[in-house]
Prior knowledge:
The chain folds into two domains: 3-67 and 176-258 and 388-410, no CATH class; 80-169 and 262-370, no CATH class. By secondary structure, it is mostly helical. It has 22 helices and four strands. It has a two-stranded antiparallel ribbon with strand order 1-2. Strands 3-4 form a two-stranded antiparallel sheet. It is elongated.
Amino acid sequence: MNLAALWTELQANLWIYLAIPMVAGLVGYVTKSLAVQMIFRPLEFVGIPPWLGWQGILPRKAEKIAAHSADLMASRLLDSNELFQRLDPDRMMLELQKPLMAAAESLIREIGETYAPGIWTRMPLSWRRRLIERFQSEIPGMVAELWGQASGNVTDYFDIRRVVTENLVRDKAKLNEIFWRVGGPELRFFRNIGFWFGLGIGLVQLACWMTWHEPLLMPLFGGMIGFISDWIALQMLFRPLRPKKFLGFTLHGKFLARQDEVAREYASLMANELLTPANMIEELLRGPALDRIVDLAQRRVREAIDTRLGWAQPVVIMALGHERYEEMRKLVAQRLVDLIPVASQTVERYALDALDINSTILSRMGRLSPEEFESVLRPAFKENEIVVVIAGAILGALIGELQVFFMLGGH
């Protein structure tokens, strides 16, 4: 077909031909947006398990992706021993002492009213007060012993990996939020560039149609271009790892080029959402060291009760029964463990300043190599990369078929 004939055909079908690349661009944008949503939504599996349905890539792979983030945090950004060395035990005890002392009275009353109501109600008020004060005097020593053991074996009592992994797996919405806030600009770029790639597909298909009028060629070209365009878009986010000059332009992966900005956001999220003093204290008390802490607390409380009861201990044991007496001592130990996290809320402000997690992560992220820094966001894409690329190929082929329909319909 000569140029005059092409021009005549273009004039005769102007609006259809103009619509082809625009529709392709719109479909490219919508499909890329859908691909981004597929990473995050839905939080739970929707459909007929195990295969007929969908769950967002991040929520579905939460444990694997969270473990990767935790490994990066523990190996390159934070050190458990270093963190605990930043805390002053005397200052921590000073902060904890008041709430623990206040809690001790209600604890002793619970024990007395539950396990020895007859003895407790007949006991003079002055005796009750003396017993409470004596028990309170044991608390600082017990807390100091707990802290001393934990500080001497930090890795046995506290695991940064567990804090990060368990919180992200437990709260998939938070996992989504972290990856969106860290990689938001890249995700928006990937979504928006879908329009321009779709527009390009449409122009190529239009040129193919006007040159050969071969219906099968259009979906073939569309699928190929869709596959390549999605692959290129993903590569643009992370490649090249280091800036490179090309024809006067500086090429650098969009995510890598934002290292300073990403580091600030990531450090803030980790410090304020995951590695908070409350979560760290919970890990210290609820993690793998819980049994050892309970045993230690129980031993100290047993010594306190046995010592304070003195000659009355056999009478109390006889009144309660041996099993009830042992049950009472265990309850005291468990109540102490339960009360410490509540009381420890008072140390959060001090611990937040002393640990300075935000600044620590920020400074160390700046020293990550491009390969290490890429791993902050890349897992979310890598788990979904083949799906996105295949979806792009299918999109291109469908656009090709759609354009054939318009072409034939116009004729």
